[in-house]
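INTERNAL AUDIT FORM
Audit reference: QA-55
Scope: verify that the stored structure record matches its stored sequence.
Auditor: D.O.
Record contents follow.
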Amino acid sequence: MAAVSRTGRQAAAWGLAGLVAMALAGCWGGPTKPDPTPLAPLEAKLVVAQAWNQSIGSVSFPLAVAVNDGTYTVASDDGTVLALNAANGAQVWRADVNAKLSAGVGSDGRIAAVVTRDNELVVLDKGVVTWRKTLPSRVVTSPLVAGERVFVVSVDRTVSAFDAFDGRKLWTYQKPGDALTLSQASVLQPFRDTLLVGQGGKLAGLDPLNGQVRWESTVASPRGTNEVERLADLVGPGARAGEQVCVRAFQVAVGCVNAERGTSLWSRNASGSDGVAGDDRMVVGADNIDRITAWRTVDGSVAWSGDSLLYRGLSAPVMAGLSVVFGDSEGYVHWFGRDSGTAVARQATDGNAIVVAPTRAGNVTLVVTSGGGLYAFRSE
């Protein structure tokens, strides 16, 4: 089974149009992305202030920031793992796993887990490495630590569970898959006593004790004329609102599932390659050209859409009270009204791209730049 990166799929999407453009231009080189939309002056309607700033090494892998009991846990390319107090940025612990990372960080507040580029699962207890386990397949999705277990999903969609304290493999779930899979962080998250995991265009609910399938719900059905175009893997992060979990299927759809019953509630055609944020009122995400859309959580109808940040390379968002927050490729952080889509605040960081989904702890929102800047903002 081969894995295709998001850039591979996007390159394929240019297809014949790219060849035609090259012929007309009379030179080599594909179509170029339009320049980012300039930022319009903004009169802030929400008070946002920088709470603290720290730094860590560069971040080029699909980092997921863990939040537990007022602590952020982050990591950098070189294998540094860092736990920080969310309120003031004070270091709780710092560790080095002595290897470059491909995925992380999963944490339950005590146990943290990352995966190295050599396919090694590394687990730490309060910042001390306790065990390592070599995995058979590459991993780009952050491990999940819950219920004294560490769960891992690899790019071939295999799901494995390990004892968090001694590393014993407890179970593995794998079913025959497609010839190609997407090499991008998938959905792996808990819902009450069920483990939610992306399996192609379906969200599956597994029993975390034994890996048995409780239900599967289709978010998007593959379509297209070849294997690349038919990729519809779910991408993280997903958004939970009560019994609903809402996710994006890569370049195909956004949809919500009742995770208690395992039934599909709605699915709407939508391009885009990053995860969504949501609450009991709205599900919000950006598409391929960075048009932002909010769908009503109850039925998937469009509440609003905005194009003020086209081509700015938006990150996945996070909900922050009555706002939704995005980072962009120039290091700016943008707050929009959840219900109106109106821009209400903007803050600058270090000028490096914010490619990691912002993370929320209380009234503090943390963004991580590709240069390793950690910027925490406090909002009303």
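Auditor finding: record pair retrieved intact. Residues 1 and 178 are 7 Å apart (CA to CA).
Action required: none
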